[in-house]
């Protein structure tokens, strides 16, 4: 019985070791030499070819996890890992990791609302991380890992608040600590953070943490899965 009670502690400590080792591994990598600049959300009234595209900015713990999930969503065009919500201009990963800059690790996602709605994007967000945790996701602890929706306009704010209320009413979660705030400046993370899961599938954090989140998305959101929809299209094309 004693060994059974110790298992959650052992698993939690193992997750902490994985998280810490990932940070040290990253610091050892070659960093991009150019400085980052704040990216403003594109104006939806822009009469360009891509004016129908929208952006969403979500923080659900480590941005590697959020990025890996949304890169699999049908209708998503780009996913950029970065930092938002802090008081320091052009923050570095090392500075954000201290929890002193006020930034959250987030992903800014460009998507086609004709393929995937903002409501669907929100539901995927809430269901693929733990919105009940305050400033924490698994072994990642600190305000930089907070659950947050940064909205671009009143429509996104209202949608986020309604989704939060709906999930609570349905008792999908016992509580939701997710912050809903206007989008401040967004700073892209260093190059070595981008496409992280795609480029490093064998890295320990990817194998032990991100794989499970991706599997959860593929199970819960089959109709929104880019991979599963492509497979279905190929199957239909052969008929």
What does this protein structure show overall?
By secondary structure, the chain is an alpha+beta fold. It has a single domain (2-226), classed as Peptide methionine sulphoxide reductase MsrA (Peptide Methionine Sulfoxide Reductase, Chain A, 2-Layer Sandwich), CATH 3.30.1060. It has eight helices and eight strands. The protein has a six-stranded mixed beta sheet with strand order 7-6-1-3-2-8, with helices on one face. Strands 4-5 form a two-stranded antiparallel ribbon. Strand 4 and strand 5 form a beta hairpin.
Q: What is the terminal-to-terminal distance?
A: 56 Å
| SSE pattern, N- to C-terminal | HEHEHEHEEEHEEHHH
Strand order across the largest sheet: 7-6-1-3-2-8
| Beta-strand percent range | 15-25%
């Amino acid at each position: 019985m004693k060994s059974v009670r110790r298992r959650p502690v052992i698993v939690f400590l193992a997750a902490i070791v994985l998280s810490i080792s990932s940070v040290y591994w990253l610091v050892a990598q070659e960093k991009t030499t150019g400085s980052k600049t704040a990216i403003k959300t594109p104006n939806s009234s822009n009469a360009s070819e891509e004016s129908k595209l929208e952006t969403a900015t979500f923080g659900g713990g480590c941005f590697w996890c959020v990025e890996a999930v949304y890169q699999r969503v049908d209708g998503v065009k780009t996913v950029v890992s970065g930092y938002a919500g802090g008081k320091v201009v052009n923050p570095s990963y090392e500075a954000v990791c201290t929890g002193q800059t006020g930034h959250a690790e987030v992903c800014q996602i460009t998507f086609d609302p004709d393929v995937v709605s903002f409501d669907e994007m929100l539901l995927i967000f809430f269901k693929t991380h733990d919105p009940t945790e305050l400033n924490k996701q698994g072994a990642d602890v600190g305000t930089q890992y907070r659950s947050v929706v940064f909205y671009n306009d009143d429509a996104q704010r209202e949608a986020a608040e309604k989704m939060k209320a709906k999930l609570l009413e349905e008792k999908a979660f016992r509580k939701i600590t997710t912050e809903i705030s206007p989008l401040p400046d967004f700073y892209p993370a260093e190059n070595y953070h981008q496409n992280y899961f795609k480029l490093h599938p064998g890295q320990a954090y990817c194998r032990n943490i991100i794989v499970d989140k991706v599997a959860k998305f593929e199970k819960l959101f089959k109709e929104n899965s880019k991979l599963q929809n492509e497979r279905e299209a190929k199957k239909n094309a052969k008929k």
